[in-house]
Amino acid sequence: MRVIFRSCAVILASSMGAGIAMGAPASTARSGDLPTPLALRSLERTMSRSTVLGFQLAIQRGFEQGKQSQRFLDCANRVDPGRLAPIFKARLERALTPEEVEAIERFWKSDAGEHLAAIQLAQVYHGVGMSPATVPPPLTDAENAQVEEPATLRASRKLEAALAQLPMDEMRTSLTTIYKECKAEGG
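Below the sequence we write its predicted structure tokens.
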């Protein structure tokens, strides 16, 4: 379990270093609207996705090495990333203004945001010593310019600082609970 938690923590940290943390298009707000609480929840869920993927890949690796059962792997693969979202919620609500959430959401909806999300998910695989099915190309100069757009960059830096202060004990407890649930299910 310690290796799995360490893998997830490394993945979370490496994702933050890529600029916009673990991006994926998620907002349900209409163009021009300020983000609703639902949009913020989607941001939390998006950030949770990489951590859960790291957990799942670490379990898969254990399965491939004969250390985990198929039932345990199946349980891990059913874990909803939303289970970790509450860990991010309070931190984000304190760290980001609605306008900053909107800047991040707007970026994630763009082609550059989707491309960066694909790169970050590939980094999750690398973080646990595995290779993704496909490796996206690096960002183009135009996409890098979008990442560096002032409003996006400012919000991203604040998000990165907030994530650096996540309560890791709470993350460890949540991952341990998930691990124990899967073990009890037949792992």
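The chain has nine helices and no strands.
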